[in-house]
Fold each of these.
Amino acid sequence: MSRSIKKLTGLVAATFTPLTAEGELNLSVIGPYIEYLIENQNVKSVFINGTTGEGCSLTVDERKQLAAAWCQHGKGKLEQVIVHVGCMSIKDSQELARHAASIGADGIAVISPSYFKPVNADALRLFIKEVSTFAPDLPMYYYHIPSMTGVAFDAADVLNGIEQVIPSFQGVKYTGTDLRDLGQCVCYSQSHNWSVLFGVDEQLLGALVLGVHGAVGSTYNYLGCIVNKMLAAFDNGNHMQTRALQFEFMEVITFAKNLGFDVSLNKQVMSEVSGLAMGPPRLPLLPCPVSKAQAIAQKVKDFSQGH
Ligand SMILES: CC(=O)N[C@@H]([C@@H](O)[C@H](O)[C@H](O)CO)[C@@H](O)CC(=O)C(=O)O
């Protein structure tokens, strides 16, 4: 890689994709969205076109437009814009990787293809490598999310030896609950100065203890401020406060899950809490009842105001 690497750490918001009522991209929201994240949540890095952003439901052209808008509006304001480029077709992923490099993104990430699945970690490494060659100067992150892709072999197996085939490899975004595998990813990453970012927001404390370098998640869009307090308490060795915040956080997520928390409901919660118009989800996700989103938003606000 020809340029120096900014290590990805701290909280990263997995952003929602604002749509109009008619289901088209609503790029006018991106500028105010960035202001909201920085000023209200103290969150300065974003992960776009991922799960929360319904990236796999967008066209390649829409993904490019969105990535360009985030990079353009975020320039000089955001610390890092990471663009998820995972697709079913490697050609589409390569094109998105090339595009991300051309617009000044700070990094790219890929999930495993999930229709034709790689048979083993070697095949997945090869896929990631062939995408990375279209943006050889951009840090590449493997996005491990077996609950969505159904590709469940250990992320640590994917990392093993990857530096030999992908010079730009820079870490893993780990959305899974296997702490043994996560721990092995952290351990392997140490000698390469890679970042391991955790993606199960309600279990972050367990991952922090294992030494992850940050977290990428949907709830940091509207609870980033509180989780930043939790990270500070953790760094200061204040275990009681860290645990108390994590427990309260878990309570909010449990409440949300009992109401059927998914990307659709989450998106509406974001609209309710932030006042930004995120719009509906895209099919096959269905719009959710606003009353459920309002009930969760109230819990989020109570939690935020209580600290
Ligand atoms: C399966 C899923 O959507 N997980 C979320 C979490 O932030 C999740 O919404 C949160 O932990 C609440 O369960 C993130 O890991 C997803 C993410 O980072 C992304 O949008 O790419």
Amino acid sequence: MPSFDPSAQAAYSVQDYSPRAQIEGLEIVDLARFNDDGGAMTELARLDAGKVQGLPGFEARQMNYSVMEPLAIKAFHLHKRQTDVWYVPPSDKGLLVVGDVRADSPTRGEVRRIVLGDMRSRLVRIPPGVAHGVRNLMPARPMSIIYFVDVQFSVDEHCDEGRLPWDHFGAEVWETERA
Ligand SMILES: Cc1cn([C@H]2C[C@H](O)[C@@H](COP(=O)(O)OP(=O)(O)O[C@H]3O[C@H](C)C(=O)[C@H](O)[C@H]3O)O2)c(=O)[nH]c1=O
């Protein structure tokens, strides 16, 4: 076994492969993608009067389509009542950052970075009180987000579009990992 020089030895650590921190109420659902030589097909959601199968307690009241320019960051959005269910197509690639800022949550303070798209088809359920932001990781292409919400958008006293600064969890959370 080699021994390392003093500066490498001082900086040395073993990669941490332990499971990532969970956030209470945050769910990731893998979707089936049926592909053939002609293309691919994915069911995003089956709805029974707005209730989404496989996501108990979530009732879709609006569906949105959002486009982000290359490398753009939208962060952080924080809802008091609204749950979001996000989908980024497998052809795109984005970094979703979620942080639990609920005062009474067992996972309060946990921050997770989740790559969306990038060949995978997944829904991500983001409960109220979990701040969320996204970066388009593609340097030359717009990224699409399709998302369901259970509160209809309004600009009156019912508006639930809270915001936190983009660097609330530190600016480095948006950087590509270097390890
Ligand atoms: C959310 C929303 C917005 N708007 C109008 C209001 C503004 O004139 C314009 C941009 O609104 P906003 O700056 O809130 O949009 P985004 O920054 O793209 O954010 C939205 O998309 C990201 C991904 C989120 O997660 C947010 O929750 C959602 O607000 O669209 C509407 O007319 N209806 C709507 O449902």
